[in-house]
From TrEMBL:
Gene3D superfamilies: Apoptosis, Tumor Necrosis Factor Receptor Associated Protein 2, Chain A (2.60.210.10), Potassium Channel Kv1.1, Chain A (3.30.710.10). Residues 352-395 form the BTB domain. Pfam families: BTB (PF00651), MATH_2 (PF22486). PROSITE patterns: BTB, MATH. It comes from Trichonephila inaurata madagascariensis. Residues 11-143 form the MATH domain. The lineage of its organism: Eukaryota, Metazoa, Ecdysozoa, Arthropoda, Chelicerata. GO terms for biological process: protein ubiquitination. SMART domains: MATH. Signal peptide: none annotated. This is Speckle-type POZ protein.
């Protein structure tokens, strides 16, 4: 939520982070659902975000589809008129792609959004560093209405797609005459083989022999995997020879691929790739196990008078915006609002980080308020004192 939200009457923001988005196993027409979020100012209506990593139908298979849906379990009014905006945002809260704001009437279980929200290749390849820093996609929805705004809320949710990564070197010895080479890849959690790779020569064409890689899945939870393999030359430099994805299911537990360079070509370059008749491979694998976590992480709620002085980033309360008078350049602060906001912080025990203990009891306090009012407290919290470490002051 930012100050632009106020001008657009956007009183609610939902930020959803999807970890390991690039390893989603969902097919065309299959979707991810965010945790439910509740907008109190709109009849306590319940909502979700719906995201199709490979499009919501055949016509949008090259796109990511993104929709806002009113949850069927909603207990609010049947019709809700809202203003809404859907976005993907970067690490600095910059908008990478956005639609809206638009005004629509939502009945229960109605959804609205875009089937062709953004090209898959833009997110996964062309601008991957922008859209998937740390392989995390950040989606955002802002909602508002025409009524007077008294409170602002910002909900933060996270969904994690489980992934196990492996990288290792594999040597095929006596390469000129080898028949097969087996490699087991073990699971971190069970230490049992979850995949077996079988390397073997295959004469698919009369003039050339290619090295094939047969993949056998052993674990029922495997549903999506990526494989990258490189030839390693005598200088340690790698040349990619395989980059593929596999979708596993109950009926499909095997796959087979051919490396890009033939055995004959490798033999011609034996001095570079086959020292002592050994072919060295570097393998990178990722194994997706589906959704492992989906939850609401935190909720930030502020009154309108405070939000007008604050800036909320995708990580919550970020920085104070001080407005200057254009003529005198003096700081304009509403002392009454400031007093009320500080009083609300204390009464609601918001962001308290210390306890003040007296003879009659203990009270939650803010160390920066105490420091501002007392040089004794300021010195106490500036250095590594016992009180600072224990987060308790005795008076």
């Amino acid at each position: 939520m930012d100050c632009d939200s106020i001008n657009e009457n956007m009183s609610f923001t939902f930020t959803w982070k999807i970890e390991n988005f690039g390893y989603s196993s969902l097919k065309n027409g299959e979707y991810l659902l965010s945790p439910v979020f509740v907008v109190d100012t709109m009849g306590k209506s319940r909502w979700r975000l719906k995201l199709y990593p490979k499009g919501n139908n055949e016509n949008t298979k090259d796109f990511i589809s993104f929709l806002l849906i009113r949850d069927i379990t909603c207990s609010g009014p049947w019709n809700v008129d809202i203003r809404h905006e859907l976005s993907f945002i970067g690490t600095d809260d910059s908008i990478l792609v956005s639609t809206g704001p638009f005004e629509n009437t939502f009945v229960k279980e109605k959804s609205w959004g875009y089937g062709n929200f953004v090209k898959r290749d833009v997110v996964l390849k062309v601008r991957r560093k922008d859209y998937l820093p740390g392989n995390i996609l950040t989606a955002r929805c802002r909602i508002g209405h025409d009524n007077e705004i008294t409170n602002y809320e910002h909900w933060f949710a996270r969904t994690r797609i489980g992934v196990e990564w492996r990288s290792f070197k594999w040597n095929i010895e006596q390469f000129s005459s080898f028949r097969s080479s087996l490699c087991d890849i073990h699971s971190n959690s069970t230490n049992q083989p979850m995949v077996t790779l079988k390397f073997h020569p295959s004469s698919e064409q009369a003039s050339e022999t290619f090295i094939r890689v047969d993949v056998y899945a052993h674990e029922y939870w495997l549903n999506f995997s990526t494989f990258r393999i490189h030839f390693i030359d005598i200088s340690g430099k790698g040349t990619e020879c395989l980059n593929n994805e596999i979708l596993f299911n109950e009926c499909n537990t095997t796959a087979s691929f051919a490396l890009t360079t033939s055995k004959e070509e490798l033999m011609k370059n034996r001095n570079r790739y086959l020292p002592n008749d050994v072919l060295q491979l570097y393998c990178e694998c990722a194994f997706s196990s589906g959704i492992r976590m989906a939850k609401i992480e935190k909720i930030v709620s502020l009154c309108s008078s405070w939000v007008q002085e604050e800036n909320l980033s995708s990580d919550g309360l970020k920085s104070k915006k001080i407005r200057l008078d254009s003529d005198s350049k003096k700081i304009r602060l509403d002392s009454k609002n400031l007093y009320e906001n500080l009083e609300a912080l204390y009464k609601e025990n918001l962001f308290c980080n210390m306890k003040l203990k007296t003879k009659t009891g203990s009270f939650p306090v803010h160390n920066y308020i105490l420091s501002a009012r007392s040089p004794v407290f300021k010195a106490m919290f500036t250095y590594d004192t016992k009180e600072k470490k224990q987060r308790m002051c005795k008076h």
